[in-house]
Amino acid sequence: MWVLIVLLSGNMAEKNETDFILNYMSEVEAVAEEILTSKQHMIELDKKRQKSREAIRVLQKDKTSTKQWVCFGNMFIKMPSKETKLLLEKENWELICKIHYPLFPVIATDFLTYSRQNIDSEVYSW
């Protein structure tokens, strides 16, 4: 009778250990999936930031035209170059803040508040 109790308790310990390992591995897999998703999101944000930076650079080089075509969703609008550049700079800074927000939450929040107050008043004054 004692042998049976020892064997049963041994099987219970192995079962608990197996359950613990399975739970641990599933948690590790969930965290790894979250990390990969987050990394992919950062890559997409960086690609948008890069395109925004390229557009700003083109506007800085082009001194001849006074208006630019800008795509908003599925429509194009012709806007003055200065306002277009300000919108692109605002978008670029917002993307930078989104990319670095986990590292610098206070700086990002303060900058976004500052940029919205100053850039919005300049952009929509025309």
UniProtKB/TrEMBL annotation:
InterPro entries linked: PDRG1
CDD domains documented for this protein: PDRG1 (cd22860)
GO cellular component, one term: cytoplasm
Protein's UniProt keywords contain Nucleotide-binding: no
Keyword Repeat: no
Source superkingdom: Eukaryota
Key words, A-Z: Chaperone, Cytoplasm
Location of the protein in the cell: Cytoplasm
Main localization, broad class: cytoplasm
Protein name: P53 and DNA damage-regulated protein 1
Annotated organism of origin: Magallana gigas
